[in-house]
Amino acid sequence: MLAVERGTVFYGGPTTPDQMRARPGMTADEGGIVEVGENARATLDLFDGSTVRLMGNTRMELSILRVGKFNADHTRLILGMLEGAAHFNIAGRLPYGREVVLNTPHGKVSLSKGEYLVWVQDDGTRVSSYVGQARADLEDHTVRIRDGQRALLPTDGVPRGPFAIAENLLRNGDFARQFQGWTMLDKYEPGRPDVGGTRRLTEEEIAGKRVQAVRITRNTEKDTHNETGITQDINRDVSAYRNLAVTAWVKVSQSSLSGGGYLGSEYPVMIRVNYTDEKGGRPGWTHGFYYSNPENRPTENGEIVAQDQWYPFLGRLSDLPDRPIFIRSIEILSAGHDFDATIADVRLVAE
C-alpha cells in the first residue's frame, strides 16, 4: 500500500505506460515505480509488515513482491533504489530468515530486522544501521554492519566500512591542518574605520588532551562593531538524516559587551549555520556564548558559561522547528567591540 504523507508523489504501474498522481492508500504492484517529488514524503507498507518511508527526490522500483502460497521458498521481496533516500523499518518476517534486498546503482544491500537509512548520492550509496544487521555487496566484496554503523558503496572500487554511523560533515574542524578548508571572515561597521579582530591558532589542553584551537581577539578604543572569524562552505543535502547536530568546545575569556550586545547578536563567540528549510526558507541558526550580563542585554540565541573555562556544547539542529534540509555554510566568529574567546574541535555531525 502506498500512502502520500505530503507533496506530489507519482506512481507508474507495470502495465501502464504513463505515471499517475498517487492517491492515498492506493495499491502498488510488482514492477511499479514510485517517484517522490521535491520536499514530498511517501510511505510504502509491504506485505511482510515492513515499512519504507521515501524522502523527497526519490525513485523506487518494486522489483519483486512475491508470496509463495504453497512453497514459502518462493517468497521474495526485492526493491530497486534508483535514486534518493529512504528509511526502512524491516519487520524480519520473511521465511527462512530471508532479508529484504535493495538493488542500487552502486551495488546490492541486504537488510535484516531493524531500522536503516539507505541513500543514493553522487559519490555512492550510503547504508546506515540504526538498529539491526545489514550487508553491502559488490560482486565478491562484502561489508557487514550492525547497530550504530554505516557502510559506503562507492561509485568505483569495493564497499567500504564499517564506520561509526555519525558522520562529520565539517572538514578540518580540529584545525590539525591549520586553516585549510576555512575562509577568513571580517566585517566592520560602515563609515567608522577601526582596528579589526585577529585570529590565531593556539595549543590548548582540554580534559587532559592537547588540542589545536582558534583564539579570536580584538581591542578597540572606538567601540565600533566588528565580526571576526572563519567560515566554511558545506553545501550538503541533509534532509534524510535522522539526527543533525553541531558540537564544539568553547571558552570565553573577555568581552566588553553584556550578554549578546545591544541587539542580542554580538556575542564574544558564536556559531552560525546557514541553511535552507523544507519550505525553501533560509532562517539560519545562531548560538552565542557569554559569561555576564549586568546590563540585561538580549540573550535569546545565547547561553551563559563560566568565564575562562572550557565548555562542551551540543546544538541539535534536527530539533529546530524549521529543520534544515540543506546546509550551505558554517561560521565561527566573535562579534561586538572587545572580545577574547577560543574554540576547538568543531563538528557538524549527521547520522
Descriptive report:
With 351 residues, this protein is an all-beta fold. The relative contact order is 0.12. The protein folds into two domains: 2-165, Jelly Rolls; 183-350, Jelly Rolls (Sandwich), CATH 2.60.120. The protein has a 16-stranded mixed β-sheet that branches. Strands 17, 19, 20, 22, 26 and 28 form a six-stranded antiparallel β-sheet that branches. 0% of the residues lie in helices and 56% in strands. Strand 19 (198-206) and strand 20 (209-218) form a beta hairpin. The radius of gyration is 25 Å and the shape is elongated.
Short recap of the structure:
This protein is mainly beta and 351 residues long. 0% of the residues lie in helices and 56% in strands.
Secondary structure layout:
Elements: E1 2-6, E2 9-12, E3 20-21, E4 33-36, E5 41-45, E6 51-54, E7 58-66, E8 76-90, E9 100-104, E10 107-111, E11 114-121, E12 124-131, E13 134-138, E14 141-145, E15 149-154, E16 160-164, E17 167-168, E18 183-188, E19 198-206, E20 209-218, E21 226-237, E22 244-255, E23 269-277, E24 285-290, E25 302-304, E26 311-316, E27 324-336, E28 339-350
Parallel strand pairs: 8-9, 24-25
Antiparallel strand pairs: 1-5, 2-3, 2-4, 4-7, 5-6, 6-8, 7-8, 8-11, 9-10, 10-13, 11-12, 12-15, 13-14, 15-16, 17-28, 18-21, 19-20, 20-28, 21-27, 22-26, 22-28, 23-24, 23-27
